[in-house]
Write a structure and sequence with these properties.
The structure is a single chain. This protein is mainly beta and 119 residues long. It is built from no helices and 11 strands. Strands 2, 4, 5, 6, 9, 10 and 11 form a 7-stranded mixed sheet that branches. The chain has a 4-stranded antiparallel sheet with strand order 1-3-8-7, with no helix packed on it. Strand 9 and strand 10 form a beta hairpin. The N and C termini lie far apart (40 Å).
């Protein structure tokens, strides 16, 4: 089992910045991929960014160049630095952890943190 706890959401004006953090209950080295997803009202949950245990990053096109995902292997945290925020970035942001064991994949989710960007 892996517990993920997000923090750092809030209200910000368009053009502003926020930093989200996700604390894991076990060594981050044991989690193959960590990521951030978001879900806006009435929409499906969508991928924002991921980072693997080797440090490879992947971003959704709509955040590329504005958001940066990073990991702290000492603190066992994953962060999402969000710059140049837009009203359409308003959503609940969820931390995700994926562990691959043989042929099985286990996914874990945090409780979510609200990000609201005002125009």
């Amino acid at each position: 089992q892996v517990q993920l706890v997000e923090s750092g959401g809030g209200l910000v004006q368009a053009g502003g910045s926020l930093r989200l953090s996700c604390a894991t209950s076990r060594s981050i080295f044991s989690i193959n991929t960590m990521g951030w997803y978001r879900q806006a009202p009435g929409k499906q949950r969508e991928l924002v960014a991921t980072i693997t245990s080797s440090g490879s990053r992947n971003y959704a096109d709509f955040v590329r160049g504005r958001f940066t995902i990073s990991r702290d292997n000492v603190k066992n945290t994953v962060s999402l630095q969000m710059n140049s925020l837009k009203p359409e970035d308003t959503a609940v942001y969820y931390c995700n952890g994926e562990i691959v064991l043989g042929l099985s994949t286990y996914e874990y989710w945090g409780q979510g943190t609200q990000v609201t960007v005002s125009s």
